[in-house]
Amino acid sequence: MEVQQQRDYEVDWRFISLAVLNEDRVADWYTPEYRAGHVAGLECLRVADAVRLAHDNDAVGRLYAALGTAIHTEQRGAGYRDDVHAFVGAALLTAGLDPALADHCADESHDAHIRADTALALQRTGKGVGTPILTFHPGQSDENSFFGPVIASIPRGEEAVRLWDAIELIATTSGMAELKRSLRSRPSFD
Fold this sequence. Notes:
This protein is mostly helical. The chain has a domain at 2-113: 3-Layer(aba) Sandwich (Glutaredoxin), CATH 3.40.30.10. Helix content is 51%, strand content 4%. A two-stranded antiparallel ribbon has the order 1-2. Helix 3 runs antiparallel to helix 4 (57-73). The longest helix is centred in the first third of the chain and has 23 residues, at 32-54. 22% of the residues are buried.
């Protein structure tokens, strides 16, 4: 969102559900608690889809920003797993949206759209990825998508623009497949 403000980009928000990606997963690390977090995320996406239907893409972006701030910056991530409805209702208020839209967190009618967006993400990147997924130049001959970037701290201003430009160059370079390393420091959302 930092680059969006710097460059006046329009972001087309799409949904990718880790609950859908991992619904058949059997692994030692995929504990019931881990799955519960993914299910809570799916419930948040249902509300985001309701916002998409009732409002517009900008409103979805405001909700994403409010949720991200509450979970990461304000460290209230445990709260959304405990009471998704109340948590997302507060985020809706922060985003200037009707908190009654939180009623959609249990509305499975949104799941078909969320599944379709998740399938599109995997079609664009292949399996074995998570979120975020960025698609550059959609509908153009050099369209390409990548999982990431996963960053440990948020670049601001010109630094954010330089990073974005580098990622866009890599993503749209013919034949580019993967660039990866493990996380080197704990995430900071300041």
